[in-house]
Structure formats: C-alpha cells, structure tokens
Amino acid sequence: MTAPKLTLFNSLTRALEPFVPVHEGEARVYSCGPTVYNYPHIGNMRAYVFADTLGRALEWQGYTLNHVINITDVGHLTDDGDAGEDKLEQAAAKSDKSIWDIARHYTDAFKADVRALNIRQPAQWSVATDYIEAMIEFAQSIADKHCYELDSGLYFDVSTVADYGRLARAVTEDGEGRIDTVAGKRNAADFAIWRKTPAGETRQMEWDSPWGKGAPGWHLECSVMAEKLLGFPFDIHTGGIDHREIHHPNEIAQNQAFCGCGGLDEAAHSGARIWMHNNFLIVRKDEGSSGKMSKSSGEFLRLQLLIDRGYHPLAYRVMCLQAHYRSELEFSWEGLGAALTRLKRLVMQVDKLKAELAASKQPEGSFPLSAQERAMFDEAICGDLNTAVVLTQLETLLGAKKTPAAKRIQGVRIADQLLGLDLLSLTREDLRLNPVAAEIDEAGIDALIARRQQARADKDFSASDAIRDELAAKRVEVMDGDSLGWEWKLD
Length: 491
Ligand code: AMP
Ligand code: ZN
What we know:
Helix content is 41%, strand content 15%. By secondary structure, the protein is of the alpha/beta class. The chain has 3 domains: 9-278, Rossmann fold (3-Layer(aba) Sandwich), CATH 3.40.50.620; 285-419, Isoleucyl-tRNA Synthetase, Domain 1; 434-490, no CATH class. It has a 5-stranded parallel beta sheet, sandwiched between helices. The protein starts with 6 loop residues before the first strand and ends with a strand. Zinc ion is lined by residues 32, 222, 247.
C-alpha cells in the first residue's frame, strides 16, 4: 500500500490540492508571526499550533522542513486601512519603556508560549526591523511601475496587478468596501508600502529612504522576509483567516509586482504555491453571542492564565487538535477541562502500556505496525491535517487490548510525532491541576492522601473522614474510586 499524498486546502483556489514541493524533497513554509506590542492570546497561539501541525505533517511525509516565522516589531497599524497608528509606537507612547524593550519583552513572552505548547522552533525566526534595507530595495524595484507617492507615503496601486484580491474573493472596484481614509489614493484598496514620518514628528522607529524618513508597511515586511529567506515561489504561506482579507492579498500583489509575473490562475505567481489559513478561536460573550478573541479589544486570555488556573498548557493544544483548523473553535473552561481529562486518560493509558511492554519483554521491532495500521494515521493527517481523527485513531489503537503492546507503543510514537503531545514522556504528575491560588501544594495533598489510605487500610474510618474534611477545608476534593485513578481534584 503506498502512503496517501498530503492534500491541503489552498485558500487561493478554495480547493483541496495535493502537495507538490517546489524543490524536491524540501518544504518551505512562511508563517506570519505575532505583532509584539502585547502578550499573545490563546487565539494567536492557535495559529502556531496549526503551523506546527503542518510542519509535522510535511516532515512525516519525508520532506525537509524549512519554516520561517517572523516577528512584527514595526509597521502593523491599529487600523487595517492606512490611517491608524503603528501598534508598537502606540504601546510605547503609553509606557515608560522604549519601543525596543517592549518588542523584546513580548517576543520573549511569545516564545515562552511556543515552548509551553510544544510548538517546535522554526528553522528561522525573522525580525522585521532586521530587514529594513532589503525592504527599501524591494520597494524601489517595484516603485516605478506599481507605486505612487503621497505626502503620507509610498502607495501601491492595486490596479497595476492582475486579479488583485482574489484570495479574499473581494469585489475590488469598491476597494472591498473597506476603510479609505487617506486622501489622494487612486483606489480605495491601495496601501502604503512605506509610511513617511509626518513633518515635525519623530518616531522611535524610523529610517531614511528614497521617500523620506519613515517606516515600512506591514505587508511589505512579509513579502521581503519570505523572498529573502525562502525565495519565490516557495511552498506554503500560513496565517490566521483575518489575513486572508487584506494582509495576504496585499502581500500577493507586491509579490506579483516583484516577480513581474501575471495573474493568479497560476498560483505560484502569488509568491507561494499554497496559502493556508486557520480559523478563529472565538469566545462567548456574556449575552451569549460569540466573537473573535483579539488583542486590540483587550478581551483575551493568555496561556499563562490557563496555567495559573491549573490547566497544563498541552490541554489547550488538545483543544486545538480536536477541532479542524479550518473550523471556528469556541473556547470555554468546560471545554478546556474536557480536553485535560482526555489528555489525562491518554497519559494513563500510555503509562499502563509502558508497564505492559516492559513485562512482555518483547522489543518494539518484533511487531511492526501493519501497512493498514499505519494508514489509519496517514490518511487522517494527509487529509488536510485531520488531527481530530489522528486522536481518535490513537485511542482506538490504545484500546485494542488484543494488539501486542509492542505494536501499540509504535502508534503512540507516531501520534507524538504528528500531534506533539509528548505522550511518551508526560506523567500524571505533570497534568495535575495545581492553580497558583491553591491553599495547599501537591506534596502536602499527596502526604495527606497517603495517610488517609493507611487509615482506611487500618479500618480507622474516623481518621480517614477527618483527613477528608481537612482536605475539603483546603478546597481539595478526594475522589475515591475515580475511574481514572486520580485520587483528588481541586474544588
Ligand atoms: P497578530 O499578533 O495580531 O499579528 O496575530 C498573530 C496570528 O494570530 C495571525 O496569524 C493572526 O491571523 C492570528 N489570530 C489572531 N486572532 C486570532 C484568533 N482569535 N484565532 C485564531 N488566530 C488568530
Ligand atoms: Zn505577514
């Protein structure tokens, strides 16, 4: 049986397409990175769990992965039109820290979340401000044919490239009905590729350019870093679904201009062969309506809050993996709790499996997985990254008690490769709820539980009840006979 070919949904064609690499044996992927003016929220992190899953699937298929994630430390405006302020300049104006310190602080916070979620480091992190010179060169190379200057900056004329806005499926004549607050633009959808510092003002981040002192536009950054690090065309460009509407159509227009290529019937003219977008993490508002989690609205959850409330960060990864990346995912604490329980169950099953394997004295190699058993995982991940099915296939294999342990453990190894849950090394203790606000630490709970078990063994039920009450006073509920073998939980 030959392995199924990796099939991915291309937002540009709105179709599932087989993955065919530009360079044999290699997969080059660019993911739009975070704008580092604030902490990343768990919705942002969904975008990188998705990009990581894509990378794992590509490696699983035998490609050498060259993944780039950028750090946007300049150029992203508060408004997707060109009238807003730079998000980092605005954050710095409200703080006593320099813009560089702010960028560094939130970049570090982002990377900490990346680690906590077991998202693998990309081959290259690219920081936008390291590429200013290259951005100016890129802009110069397209300026004559595709751009015009206004007092506020250098603007890209979207009518100079074929099929502008195809990615967004937008009606371009009216500029997609989006914000048009800059006087003098030729088309409402035209966008700044270089923003001049207004006369009499100084920005913390500004550079000399042929169009005066200023800063690059956000869309320019990603075109330039992708071209420099991966070359056009590269294989796959990823981002959240919001980028499908403005940021990526604008990147594509610049790429077409830079390459001097034609329309988008040929996907590679866009700079990448495949454009992929994860859907939003949404939150239910009090009134029952749902909305996208966003940094700018200020209503967002950080991964650290989940950890502080006692949830292991990989429970959030499970939550992401249970949903298809192209579906909206609604966050709730109950849902997170259910994901944690699922993860606990998996960890405990793997624990038992390891013991079984040791007792069986059978080396893993003695029972290789059959082509059919491997295909269960293969088909799921190769069918546009169906991680939800990979999870259930794993559970099915773990539950197949007649299948030798030596075989089942290989299924876990494959699932770890594809899902990044570290099931082979995660322990029960790692997953215990341990909120920062807890009134007793785990060692204290374990000591009391052990004393209570002894009391029960000695049939000293009044002592056992007293310990139960003592724990209850500290908001720890003892769970006798829990099917998971978890002896306690926090109330
Ligand atoms: P930003 O830091 O705002 O530039 O966003 C970083 C990444 O997170 C981008 O790929 C966004 O498209 C993505 N993103 C933003 N909000 C959400 C959300 N609520 N759910 C999923 N992805 C999101
Ligand atoms: Zn980008």
